[in-house]
Amino acid sequence: EVQLVESGGGLVQAGGSLRLSCAASGFTFDDYGIGWFRQAPGQEREGVSCISNSDGRTYYADSVKGRFTISSDDAKNTVYLQMNSLKPEDTAVYYCAAMGLGPTIATVWSSRGEYDYWGQGTQVTVSS
Q1: Are residues 60 and 49 in contact, defined by beta-carbon separation less than 8 angstroms?
Q2: Are 27 and 117 in contact (CB under 8 A)?
Q3: What's 108's DSSP letter?
Q4: What is the pLDDT confidence band of residue 17, given thresholds at 50, 70 and 90?
Q5: In the prediction, which pLDDT does 103 show?
Q6: How distant is the alpha carbon of residue 111 from its chain centre?
Q7: What mean pLDDT value characterizes the chain?
Q8: Residue 60 φ/ψ, nearest 5 degrees
Q9: What order do you get walking across the sheet with 18-25 strand by strand?
Q10: What are phi and psi of 31, to 5 degrees?
Q11: CA dihedral 98, 13, 69, 123 (to 10 degrees)
């Protein structure tokens, strides 16, 4: 059974940091890319970042570049999203998702429809 379990969300003041974790099981970790998405109330789910577990390449939305860092621990089948310099507009439910790797990951990583499996989400709230 495929499972993606997020953790690490919470309430933090603007300027603070959080680290989200996504623990994966039930599939071959190295054959997938793991993406982080977020969805604020009334808004569409948007891609935040992605990492290819085959070659370690990373991708970021412009809104988080320089503040968020995605990383992967193959031994633990876990992907992390380190979020620094958080802003109130980062408030959302954060989801991790798994996508089978292909040659187009650089262009499709932020597309929800490319992902096969999703976690249940974790709430991140940034107060001003």
Answers
A1: yes
A2: yes
A3: H
A4: very high
A5: 81
A6: 13
A7: 96
A8: -140, 150
A9: 3-7, 18-25, 78-83, 68-73
A10: -90, 5
A11: 0
